[in-house]
Design goal:
Layout (H helix, E strand, L loop, with lengths): L5 E5 L4 H12 L3 E6 L5 H4 L5 E5 L5 H15 L4 E4 L14 H29 L2 E6 L3 H4 L5 H20 L5 E7 L19 H8 L10 E3 L2 E3 L24
Parallel strand pairs: 1-2, 1-4, 2-3, 4-5, 5-6, 6-7
Antiparallel strand pairs: 7-8
Length: 246
């Protein structure tokens, strides 16, 4: 297998992940697909180019061992798409701890673990492209989506931090929101998941001078932070763009 074209993609059996798997296969990438169910691309595609590994990312004790095995076998995986996600609806103060832990494992903890394991080889090879699939939810904080918003917010924070920690290398770690597309989480959405393919292609093919630590949505770059230029945190001094209330 040509490791220079290898992509590790999680959550590959449905929705956005299924769409991305077919798209990347058509573009000639070699695929390592992780999901609880077997993606249909395994039956359609060349098995020499597609490896499917069944895993439940909500169970880190087992999933971390599977990630370790993949990284040990492939040694260097230049492209990673952390797509697997879950949205448990309901008011935040009525959620059970087990639900929060379950969703946190899928939406944030395991993406962090995947990045932790692939980054050393990316630094050694001086190349890596990581795309973490996120949502506008942590920016909007809609009622009833608290667990999803919080766990995706954690993913956003880890993505930006790791991007900054690896700026000395040709490694780009970015966030992509696919938009309100049809999936098992949103079966009645009007948009086809393929609408996000051009944004994915842009992030997969960023040059060494390209951005890292950004949030991208359907061809737009969306700011994650307010304009804090001139703010002096240690001195307690704000800037003119902050609303002063005292």
């Amino acid at each position: 297998m040509n490791t220079t074209k290898t992509v590790l993609l999680t959550g590959a059996s449905s929705g956005v992940g299924k769409s991305l798997a077919h798209h990347l296969y058509d573009l000639g990438y070699d695929l390592i697909l992780l999901s609880r169910r077997e993606p249909d691309i395994v039956k359609i595609g060349d098995r020499e180019l597609v490896e499917f590994i069944s895993t439940d990312l909500s169970k880190p004790d087992r999933a971390t061992g599977i990630i370790d095995d993949i990284v040990n076998r492939y040694e260097y995986i230049p492209y990673v798409i952390n797509n697997a996600g879950i949205n448990t609806g309901g008011h935040l103060d009525r959620q059970k701890w087990d639900t929060i832990e379950h969703d946190l494992n899928i939406n944030a903890r395991m993406p962090w673990y995947v990045m932790k394991k692939v980054l050393p080889a990316m630094r050694e090879e001086n190349f890596g492209r990581i795309i973490n699939i996120t949502s506008g939810a942590p920016l909007n904080c809609y009622p009833g989506f608290g667990v999803y918003s919080a766990t995706k917010g954690m993913l956003n924070t880890m993505t930006v931090t790791l991007a900054r920690e690896n700026e000395g290398h040709n490694i780009k770690i970015n966030l992509m929101s696919p938009g309100p597309v049809r999936s098992e989480m949103a079966p009645h959405a009007k948009l086809n998941p393929a609408i996000c393919h051009p944004t994915l292609d842009y992030l997969m093919n960023l040059p060494e001078s390209g951005d890292t630590g950004g949030f991208y949505w359907l061809g737009y770059k969306v700011p994650l932070f307010p304009d804090l230029e001139g703010v002096q945190w240690l001195e307690g001094i704000g800037n003119e763009k902050l609303k002063r209330i005292l």
